[in-house]
Amino acid sequence: MMSTLSCVTILTERRCSDGRLIVDFIAEALGISLMPLNLGHSNQDFKQGVNFAVSGATTLDLAVFEEKGVHVYTNYSLGVQFAWFKQLLPSLYALRSGKSVQELRAIVPHVIDTISSTITELIDEGAVTLMVPGNLPIGCSPSYLTVLQSQNKDDYDTNGCLSWLNEFSQFHNQLLQNELNRLREVHPHATIIYADYYKVAIELYQFPNQLGFTGGDLTTCCGGGGPYNYNVSAKCGYQGSTACVDPSLFVNWDGVHWMERAYNHIATGILSGPFTTPRINIGCVSSKSHNDDHSSS
User: Fold this and answer.
1) Hey, how many other C-beta atoms are within 10 angstroms of the C-beta on 183?
2) pTM of the full predicted structure?
3) Treating both helix axes as pointing N-terminal to C-terminal, what angle do 260-272 and 22-29 enclose, rounded to 10 degrees?
4) Where is the chain membrane-spanning (predicted)?
5) What average pLDDT is seen over the chain?
6) Fewest CB atoms less than 10 Å from the CB: which of 28, 32, 154, 167?
7) Residue 289: is its pLDDT beyond 50?
8) What does residue 295 show for φ and ψ, rounded to 5 degrees?
């Protein structure tokens, strides 16, 4: 019997957190409805948007990882999600596999190329404003901290995160920003916004108490014990796991996904802080969204 649910239902939509995600806060700031999930829905009204995301999805296809001996948990890659988008158009108009960092760094340029080609296709389909997020500080993830525990103190930064793993995230983000700069020159008519998830998210681990996350920044709210409350044999939602009393005091939900308050911090930083390139004028975007709604009603 499951002791708790690993995902919750927010206004009829499934979210692997205790509440809203970054995309939900952005939707609210724009004055639009929370975007329904494409996967598992039929006959939906996607006029206000649609969410093609799938928990644990990768940029590269499953075949690429299998060829390199890397195990992934889902086959809903970026290519699969983009194919869903293209199917919808007519109606609208891994580190745990034992690989070294060096081996995984060699894959990153391919990841960036895949993201770049998807952005180009979206622009070719008529997109004029795109937000592209960078990677989070994955070295602070309770799941990675558990699976990749080290006896070497030099492997950890002052926040208790795996420094070499965070450096991997930053390596990805730098290559991504370089490619976005190139795409801006190729497509000057499009606005390509880089959302620096890393810089805004790392604040949660640098200043957890000041931000109100006194329950734990590196431990999960829902888990099965251990130094980070993450247990691969008793994951959140399964027998042996329990959930914290006050989720709002924690950064992480289940070892992989974050809490609503943490997502809100990131979304607020992206929408009103210095964490996007170029900066977002949310007032203009929000007003345009409301005007479009009125003009179509």
Assistant:
1) 18
2) 0.67
3) 50
4) none
5) 78
6) 154
7) no
8) -70, -25
Q: What percent of the chain is modeled with pLDDT above 70?
A: 64
CA distance 41 to 278: 34
Helix intervals (H) in 132-248: 142-147, 163-186, 197-201, 203-206
Rounded Cα gap, residues 117 and 285, in angstroms: 26
Phi, psi of 26 (to 5 degrees): -65, -40
* 251 close to 201: Cβ distance less than 8 angstroms: no
The one-letter code for the residue type at 183 is L
The pairing of beta strand 13-15 with beta strand 8-10? antiparallel
pLDDT (average), residues 275-287:
73
Find out whether 32 and 292 touch, Cβ atoms under 8 Å: no
Q: What is the per-residue pLDDT across 60-81, written as a single tens digit (0 to 9) for each?
A: 555 655 666 665 555 555 555 5
Asked if 226 and 146 touch (Cβ cutoff 8 Å), the reply is yes
Contact 13, 40 (CB under 8 A): no
Question: Please, what is the end-to-end C-alpha distance for the chain in angstroms?
Answer: 48
> Residue type for 202, please?
I
Q: How far is residue 37 from each of residues 9, 54, 98, 132, 176, measured CA to CA in Å?
A: 12, 9, 33, 19, 26
